[in-house]
Amino acid sequence: MVGPYRGLFGTPGVRGFVIAGFFGRMPVSMLGIGVVVLVKELTGSYATAGAVAATVGVSYAVAAPLSGRLVDRFGQARIVIPLTPAHGATLTGPMLSALLAVAIGVGGSAWPRPPVARQQS
User: Fold this and answer.
1) Using one digit for the tens of pLDDT, what is the confidence trace for 26-40?
2) Are 39 and 94 spatial neighbours (Cβ–Cβ below 8 Å)?
3) Domain residue extents for the chain
């Protein structure tokens, strides 16, 4: 399976681009389960944990196309640089309070890794 892609990785810049995309996408898959585990431990309720995780997911689904459009219009650096600390700051909110409003910020400030990973600067 690696054989057909071996020539592609010989292209300058591709290896770093693929590695960055791989590590950039890893947190996305763990965010939902991390929120569920954290909120369940804080509240003792799977219902609350599911509601918070669903809110994060829905807000990401709403915000990702919008931030992806902004990346297309203004470039990665102008969008990803401010969204990264915003995402980190709002991610600490559920750790402290597990509020649905903060979960909206978490999902809404997560920059869209798949569209950014496929776009070259």
Assistant:
1) 777 788 898 899 889
2) yes
3) 3-118
Question: Can you give the length of the chain in residues?
Answer: 121
pLDDT of residue 98: 57
pTM for the model stands at 0.64
Number of H helices, E strands in the chain: 6, 0
Question: Amino acid identity of 28?
Answer: V
Whether the CA torsion 60, 32, 93, 52 is positive or negative: it is positive
Cα separation of 31 and 91, whole Å?
10
For tokens 């776009």, the residue is 119
55, 104 contact by CB (below 8 A): yes
Backbone φ and ψ for 55, nearest 5 degrees, come out as -65, -45
Tens of pLDDT, residue by residue over 36-82, are 998 898 889 999 999 989 998 899 889 889 988 998 999 888 988 88
Quote the CA–CA distance of 105 and 102 in Å, as a whole number.
5
